[in-house]
Design a protein that fits this description.
The complex is a heterodimer of chains A (264) and B (264). Chain A is an all-alpha fold and 264 residues long. Chain A has one domain. Chain A contains 8 helices and no strands. In chain A, helix 1 crosses helix 5, helix 3 packs antiparallel against helix 5 and helix 5 crosses helix 7. Chain A starts with a helix and ends with a helix. The model of chain A has no long low-confidence stretch (mean pLDDT 90). With 264 residues, chain B is of the alpha/beta class. Chain B has 2 domains: 158 residues, P-loop containing nucleotide triphosphate hydrolases (Rossmann fold, 3-Layer(aba) Sandwich), CATH 3.40.50; 61 residues, no CATH class. In chain B, the strands form 2 sheets. Chain B has a 6-stranded mixed β-sheet with strand order 6-7-8-3-9-10. In chain B, strands 2-1-4-5 form a 4-stranded antiparallel β-sheet, covered by helices on one side. In chain B, helix 3 crosses helix 4, helix 3 runs parallel beside helix 5 and helix 4 packs across helix 5. In chain B, 41% of the residues are buried. The chains are: A mainly alpha (264), B alpha/beta (264). At the A-B interface, helix 4 of A face helix 2 and helix 3 of B.
């Protein structure tokens, strides 16, 4: 029993220490934002890299999710004779929730894991120490460009996922439910015209983009922090990647709920 | 120029250094010998502030470095070049980019001037023609030479070598030894190297220190030291390992130590 309590306590302390490190790293990264202009080439390089890595799978998942949503809701709406509302439902669900959520999960798997692996490999092969000896701050040189690239890329990918998701719903509406393109499109646009206080921007769109922005911060912070403190050779790299993916997944899901609760 | 006073350091529950004291004079070449895990690398890392002592003082050029913050430590570190055991090249940068890295980060030189300086350093380590290769495409010896070119990019006053010939065949190891001598002669640097191979010491080092039980137990000119019974026992493999050797090191997949733990 004592051993169980001790190991549980140790695991809890370990998790808290990691979370603390992640938060400190986030603040140190925010403190280094002044270096963004100097590191713009690196930021653009990583944005393209992350975009290429994540976009194909994001778009495929986005369009399929839109089709599934269109089909599932469309079948029920058809029974009620309300199939023309399918555009409203798909557009709102994609922009508010599914677009940012899917993007968050895919970026966790494709980019967050890669970030953790890259930095963990550097950590276990003395490369981070080499940077430190050269007086090169790993936060400014390694963390900041990757962080900024993902934070900027996440909303961009989300917008594209939203678009293809809505288009996917339209395909199902047209071919399986007999909803015309014009009606579907009009309903989708109309549903997103819930203008709010943010300079007259449609709330469903900026709420979704705000979520994806927060997800970008979360995924990059977790991936980078986990990679930086990796130890123990190849085993440590594998462990870092696994932990980065699990923690990012959980945080994306939890934050998704919290942000929805706050925004609606 | 470099002075370590009564350094104590515990890693993973094992006291690696127990009151280590040593002085390295300017332009001197000092070699530290000891068995694997005796704390040779930890001693080097104390000199550049990669590791801080639990007790004791580290002085470089009349300045105490173990209490300095990141910024102050940065200016001290720029006096050092550090050749890591693995070379520690940044794995996504070519040889040229690796050597250019400290110049780009710490100087305002034009790209033309940087290219000129980089080629000079690469020529000094006899790697011309390989500057566009990635670290993955280099042999162990070439990686060390590239690491050395990077270490001397900012014309340091002190060069630290961590096991410079470990894992190399006799021919390449011989080249690396010649390079250490050439660096000293060409740049007039103070040199500290840690090794467990007598060939790295004889004809290269001005003084040799034997690290045993966490402290330098004997030091002197290599030819004098070669007559020491302890050195002879060490070189012939007849020396008894201390009972605590290896105790406290972390098992694979075991608990999470602090960052410094694995590097003894």
């Amino acid at each position: 029993m004592l051993a169980f309590l001790a190991s549980t306590g140790q695991a809890l302390l370990h998790t808290l220490a990691r979370a603390g490190y992640g938060i400190v790293l986030l603040f140190r990264t925010l403190g280094a934002l002044g270096d963004c202009f100097r590191r713009r080439d690196q930021i653009i390089h990583f944005m393209l890299n992350y975009g290429i890595k994540s976009l194909p799978v994001s778009l495929v998942v986005g369009v399929v999710m839109g089709m599934i949503m269109g089909l599932q809701t469309g079948i029920e709406l058809l029974r009620l004779g309300q199939q023309e509302s399918i555009g409203t439902l798909v557009a709102i669900v994609m922009c508010r929730e599914m677009g940012p959520f899917i993007t968050g999960l895919i970026l966790t798997a494709t980019v967050g894991s890669a970030m953790a692996a890259e930095l963990a490999t550097m950590a276990v092969s003395e490369e981070l120490e080499a940077l430190e000896v050269m007086s090169i701050d790993p936060v400014r040189y390694l963390v900041l460009p990757r962080f900024m690239a993902l934070v900027l890329m996440c909303p961009i990918v989300t917008i594209l996922v939203n678009l293809v998701g809505i288009a996917g719903g339209g395909v199902v509406g047209f071919f399986q439910l007999g909803v015309s393109w014009t009606v579907y499109y009009d309903r989708a646009i109309e549903s997103l015209r819930d203008f709010d206080f943010l300079g007259g921007l449609p709330k469903d769109i900026y709420a979704g983009l705000l979520k994806s922005f927060v997800f970008g911060i979360t995924i990059s912070s977790v991936g980078l922090a986990t990679g930086l403190i990796a130890k123990g050779g190849a085993l440590g790299v594998g462990r870092a990647v696994r932990e980065a993916v699990i923690h990012s997944f959980l945080l994306v899901i939890i934050l998704s709920y919290i942000l929805t609760r706050m925004l609606y | 120029m470099i002075e370590l006073k009564d350094i104590h350091k515990s890693l993973g529950g094992r006291e690696v250094l127990r009151g280590l004291s040593l002085t390295v004079e300017s332009h001197e070449t000092f070699a530290i010998m000891g068995y694997s895990g005796s704390g040779k690398s930890v001693t080097l890392k104390h000199m550049v502030g990669l590791t801080r002592p639990d007790k004791g003082e580290v002085w470089v050029g009349g300045e105490r470095v173990d209490t300095l913050g990141w910024k102050e430590l940065g200016s001290v570190r720029r006096r050092f070049g550090f050749l890591f055991q693995s070379g520690a090249l940044i794995n996504w940068l070519s040889v040229f980019e690796n050597v250019a890295l400290p110049l780009r980060e710490h100087t305002n030189l034009s790209e033309t001037e940087i290219a000129k300086r980089v080629r000079e350093k690469i020529a000094l380590v006899r790697l011309l023609g390989h500057e566009n290769k990635m670290p993955d495409h280099l042999s162990g010896g070439m990686r060390k030479r590239a690491g050395l070119a990077r270490a001397i990019a900012l014309d340091p006053q002190i060069l630290l070598y961590d096991e410079p010939t470990a894992g190399l065949d006799p021919v390449i190891a011989g080249h690396i030894r010649k390079m250490i001598v050439r660096m000293r002669e060409a740049l007039g640097v103070t040199t500290v190297l840690v090794t467990h191979q007598i060939e790295d010491v004889v004809g290269i080092a001005d003084r040799l220190g034997l690290l045993l039980g966490g402290r330098i137990v004997e030091s002197g000119p290599p030819d004098v030291m070669m007559k020491s019974p302890r050195i002879r026992a060490f070189l012939s493999g007849q020396m008894e390992l201390p009972a605590a050797h290896g105790a406290g090191t972390r098992p694979i997949g075991g608990g999470r130590p602090k960052r410094e733990e694995s590097d003894t």
